[in-house]
Amino acid sequence: MQKKKSFYWLAAMLLIMSLFMAACSNGEDEAGAAEDDKKETEGNEGGEKAAQEGGTIVYALDAAPEGLFHWNWYGIQTDAEVLGLFDDNLITFDEELKPQPNIASWETEDNKVFTFKFQEGVKWHNGDELTVHDWVFSLETLAHPDYEGPRYTNVQTVEGAEAFRNGEADSISGLEVINDYEIKITFDKARVNNLLNLWTYPMNRKAFEGIEVADMEGSDPVRRTPIGTGPFKVNKVVSGESVELVANEDYWQGKPKLDKIIIKVVDSTAVTGALQNGDIDVVSVHPTIGKDVEAMENVDLVTAPGLSYYYVGFKLGKFDNEKKEVVEQKEKYADKKLRQAMMHSINREEWIEAFFGGYGDVVNRPVPTAHWIAADNDDLNTYPYDPEKAKEILDEAGYVDTNDDGFREDPNGDEFVVNFSHYATGNPTFESRAKALTQYWEEVGLKSTLEMIEVNQYYDMVEKDNENMEAFFGGWGYGADPDPSGLWKSDQLWNYPRWVNEESDQLLEDALDVEIVGTDEAKRKELYVKWQQIVNEELPMLFITELQEIYGMNKRVGGLTLDVSGFNSAHEWFVTE
Amino acid sequence: MLKYTLRRILGMIPMLLLISIVVFSLALSMPGDPFGGEIDPNNTDPQYIEEMREKAGLNDPVHVQYGRWISNFMQGDFGESTRYKMPVAELIGERMPNTLFLGITSLVITYILAFVMGMYAGRKPYTTADNLIGGVNYLGLAVPSYIAGVFAIYFFSFKLGWFPFSGSVDITLQNGSFEYYLSRLHHVFLPAIVLGALGTASYTQFLRNDIIESSRKDYVRTARAKGTPETKIYNKHILRNSIIPLITFLGFDIVTLISGAIITEAIFTYPGIGQLFLDSINNRDYPVMMTLTMMFSFLVLFGNMIADLLYGIVDPRIRVD
Amino acid sequence: MAEVINDTSITKIKVQKSLSPWAVARRKFLRNKLAMVSLFFLMTVSILSFLAPYITTADITRVNIGSMSLTPSSEHWFGTDKSGRDVFTRLLYGGRVSLLVGISCTLLIITFGTLIGALAGFFGGIVDALLMRFTDFILNFPLLVFVIVLNAVFFGKLGGVPVLIAVISVLGWGGVARLVRSKILSEKENEYILAAISIGSRPAKVIMKHLLPNVLSTIIVQATLTFAAMIVVESGLSYLGFGVPAETPSWGNMLAASREPDVLQNMPWIWIPPALTLVITILSINFIGEGIKDALNPKSLR
């Protein structure tokens, strides 16, 4: 129960950072573009299995949904998991997280004006046909002054959105409907990531008819009777407990093979037992119980590269949120050599095996390996576990033991202690995994302390550069948008290490600059690789691991595949008995 | 009696107000904005936060905030859960039946166990069986419920596989079917036994001692002298007299059931009020936390009052002037 | 703090030889086998716990990645937990914390409760009314609920064991105060007290010299019960994750490992030792308490 909290946080972080979280979690990855990539994740599609007509599967959530079942308002990952089953995104993402056409395809010449074309004949669950008007309705809702959700930023860049929000215009001038299936969207200026930033979830006009924008969040079409365009329809919502989905016979990609999906909340402590008994068919599994699930005879463990990474950050300065700049430098960890030595002293493979059951990989950059902008390890320092080298670097940098207490002093000869903080949620493994990290540092002669801080307070302290925060543990999630500016530019609040590097800032800006990269992906990637090399060399944070997404899946379930962008469309799922 | 009852009820009001002030100040001093659920955590723009704070009334003086909270509270508006985004009253309403079911089942178990053991021990005092019952009771009093719960799960769920170890119902069953209710009973049994065992000891001991004492009384001697069968004496005459004082325990039971429910529900991951309370603290869901804390305090007050009143009814001599 | 209801023996008192009441009590207590065994056990556990640093050399906080979740062996008597820490060593260190919390809370609760109870009982009138309203107020807070809430308020700010002790004590003294007050009230009516007051003894002196010694037996018995109850409270809170901070070993924290079904089901060596130690310790304290009660009760034989 406790353990899940960090994942809420992670989920929250995912949201915060990437405006396109939704895109990578709903996973209507239509056709398997790269089949070979998926094979290892499917232990399921063997020839011996015959799909049964109809049938029901139980899809378990290990945390209760908030019950905000519309993309425009949902807040947590759990709700997104449910949403992905009954409402389709207009565009989708491949396993490198590049956008692909789904219901809508698009064309652009200059990254400023886009023409979108909808598939004809896509039906809402209430029988209405999906048209571009539904999309306009959705975008205007987000831009409405009464909309209080966090997604206005996703239309802000459309020309005229600002004027609409301020009440100066009756419609958004950048949205130009050509006919029911075509729309031209003009952005305020050309940007590389205009498409990725744009909100691509339509809203059914009839369902929300007569509901004021301010009341929409609590309204029935969001909470009790949500509708979408996806392969399944919501039949019944039992708040905080379960959702019953039935097949959408008119699904635009074909009739679903299953009759029903029952989504049930199962406490995380009960997940193993329920999987074992066959009470639940599909569930996300925490790495620490991965091995147990793998051993079950009736269950397959499917994994896909994840999009989150864990790190140890250093506070290198202090941030002023009003001025939006780092106003003060902190000296303690300013020496790059010190940080590199600390990285070398950590046995990351051993650590991942011990605390994540091996369901994670060593990572050397702040970009998940699956992402298309990820730099190859050959281009980076890999910082292998090498305590001797760490000691050498420390000696060179002047961190030597001058008073023979067994621990190194700083170059001035003063006592040096790494004060490491980790969040506490009541999950006992957090303390031991954090403690293990400090032990690695002590082994190379750096005296270390550990403080466990209650998780809600922890992130508050990290964000506000509390004096007690020096070296801190954290995790970030990554979305489809490759742009890491929100976490790394020196004027960003979420640049937790308060790292200021002009070259880095410049590269991040260049990568978004149409003048420089245009529509040339290779050029863009080159800039990001360069940026990753700088971060990898400077190490404002020590990158520890990227976790895998793990799902436990009963062997009777077939046709279900998982990749970095999530599950395939649920209309392909079936049961064999 | 009526006057006394009224006085007790009136006396609760200042106490409740005091408690509400304590609860309110605690919520204020908690990390983060206690009533800031409406503020979107993803938006860090200081101006936006300020706007929302103003809108939510967080910039008002403390006593104004308190006044608003308590007047809403009295009207049954407990606010909205920041986590589930739904009215707290609705949320509690959803979880309440589970806890009530657990509480009532455990009380039933307590009564059955206590009557069987207490009557037996009372009829045959100072025998091996009596000592055994005494010993079991002693264990029941001394062993903390969560340890009992952990052992119960280990043996009855894992080793023997007799009972499920978590949840309130089998998730695949259709609501309302016969199997559904059977499954609920199956799920509640183990936690209810653990919770019920807490109260059994005091009931048993009381019953036993009372029966022993009664059996020496004159009316029993008279009955015996008249040749009334022993079974009838015990089951009819003595038991009737011994049961009445027992109802005074009910008030205290309300109090023990609250703390018991928090722990037991946590061990068995049983989705009731106790778990909701712990979750609300872990998730900083202040409206839920405050409402439940108030509710628990109220129940304690209420339980104590019931106990006093029942006491007065059962034994008029004790009635406080 | 449930009190076991004992049937009081109805046999009449026999006149003892001229031993002082305390000596009589001591003799009775020494003859009580169950209490003596319990005392022996409690002493052993306490001594082992407080001497833990001298008994085992294993590092209590060190995470040993190579030796996680090992079954009991000659090297690790009770095996190791999921962090590779020796369970036996943690059990000893855990005892330090659990017993320390228990004793500290008991001392604070008894001291404060006795003080309030004695003042209220002795002075009566307005003092009594005020103090008892205050006591009622405190008693109306469900202990567990408020300790959890208070802990959430203070957690991380002040941190750890002292805060826990303070919070439990502040909320826990009501029962003792009530009990002491009622005892004092009945004791106060005795003539020797009236005499002491009438010759002008100061209230402090009357309370300390005359009243308290006479209610001491009640307080001692109550203290043992409180001690057991406080150990239960500490471990229960820690089990729920609202007690002693997770990085400090305590019996409750060790038991909390069993909240992972994996540990509960497959690694009983991690949680059975603290569970059994807790149960036996609490039983022992209760037996000792019963023994003392019996020994101090002039009506009981033995």
Describe the structure.
The complex is a heterotrimer of chains A (577), B (321) and C (302). Helix content of chain A is 31%, strand content 22%. Chain A is built from 21 helices and 23 strands. The radius of gyration of chain A is 25 Å and the shape is globular. Chain A starts with a helix and ends with a strand. The model of chain A is unreliable at 1-48 (pLDDT under 50). Chain B has helices at residues 2-29, 46-55, 62-74, 88-123, 128-142, 145-159, 178-214, 218-225, 230-246, 249-267, 273-282, 286-314. In chain B, helix 4 runs antiparallel to helix 5 and helix 7 (178-214) packs across helix 10 (249-267). The termini of chain B are close together. Chain C has a single domain (21-56, 76-296), classed as MetI-like fold (Orthogonal Bundle), CATH 1.10.3720. Chain C contains 13 helices and no strands. In chain C, helix 2 (33-50) packs across helix 4 (87-123) and helix 5 packs antiparallel against helix 8. The chains are: A alpha+beta (577), B mainly alpha (321), C mainly alpha (302). Chains in contact: A-B, A-C, B-C. Chains B and C meet through helix 1, helix 5, helix 6, helix 7 and helix 10 of B and helix 5, helix 6, helix 10, helix 12 and helix 13 of C.
